[in-house]
Amino acid sequence: MTNEYGLIVLFLIGLFGGAHCIGMCGPLVATYAERMDRDDRWSGAITLYEVRQHALFNLGRTMSYAFIGGAFGAAGALLYGTVGLAGILGPFQGAVGIFTGIVVIVMGLTRLIGYRQGAVEGVIAGSGIGSAFTRSYTAISTRIDRWVSGIGIIGLGALHGLLPCMLLYPAFLYAFAQGSPVYGLFSLGALGLGTIPSVFLYGTVIQSVSTRQRQVVHYGLGLLFVGLGYVLLSMGFLRFGIELPRPEIPYYQPLAKSEGRL
């Protein structure tokens, strides 16, 4: 149930977080749209070529999120496997779940009390670890003209997975806490799929999202992050024998035990 609920929440985070993506990556997406080779006969109209290019860009971006999520899940699995050798796997997973859940909940609360878009990303990009993000920006800017008009735009989309993003950090933590590379891949893939409609429409049709709309979205994201953090928190406490109330999934049916059978 926890895994099913997590995938649904992550998809919704991506779906409703599209305005955040537009606010952070919109200028780059607009640049791609301007740099694409266009047939003058179709000037002012959306062509199948542009639709294909934006679809490839979003495919690369989603694949990048998924693979990074798989890497975080693998890191969690490796850590759990190492701790398992010491015979303290259950309590350790519980502690990781509780800690990560609290962090994600705090991230959600910051959005509810007045998150300023780009504030956290700016701090991280300016820190020591921000050099990786700086290199990603450089890699993107130097490859736009060469890659944007061909299949290489998939690579431009993939590089976006390395950019600082408050939409991704909680999801990466969630994948790490789950400790499964496969689930990490699927969970971040679900988030990436959720972001596609808004980013795709922004690149092909829409070129602006109002500040008010983004503010409303941030409140919604705050609620979703709190929900995602609560899933991790309840999972952690369950490892210590403490069961917190959890929402029911309509299509989820727990396996019933038949008499004499497991």
From TrEMBL:
Residue ranges of every copy of the Urease accessory protein UreH-like transmembrane domain listed in the record: 10-230
Keyword rRNA-binding recorded: no
The transmembrane segments are 6-33, 65-89, 95-114, 151-176, 182-204, 216-238
What Pfam families does the database record attribute to this sequence?
A: DsbD_2
The answer, when asked if GTP-binding is one of the entry's keywords, is no
Q: List the keywords (alphabetical).
A: Membrane, Transmembrane, Transmembrane helix
Recorded hits in PANTHER family, A to Z, give: HEAVY METAL TRANSPORTER, HEAVY METAL TRANSPORTER-RELATED
Q: What is this protein called?
A: Sulfite exporter TauE/SafE family protein
Which organism is this protein's natural source?
A: Halobium palmae
